[in-house]
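Morning run. Coffee first, then this:
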Amino acid sequence: MCLGTIYWAHIHKMVNGNNKTDARNIGFDNSFIYDEIDLAIDKRKVSFTQLLPKKTIKAFDAWQDNEDKVAY
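And here it is:
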């Protein structure tokens, strides 16, 4: 499960049977993700491009103005 999603969903307890070392040992090594996050955007393996920031910020503005939102 995505760690970010767990926190955004306000899940307060996770139960699992294996740890990251167990996952790495069978080929599910996530350490490269943490390495990528620490890199500058222009140094990452996946190309990131920001598109239409003045238009797309409107979705964030609408969220911020929404009185029924659940704060994250």
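The two ends are 18 Å apart (CA to CA). Good start to the day.
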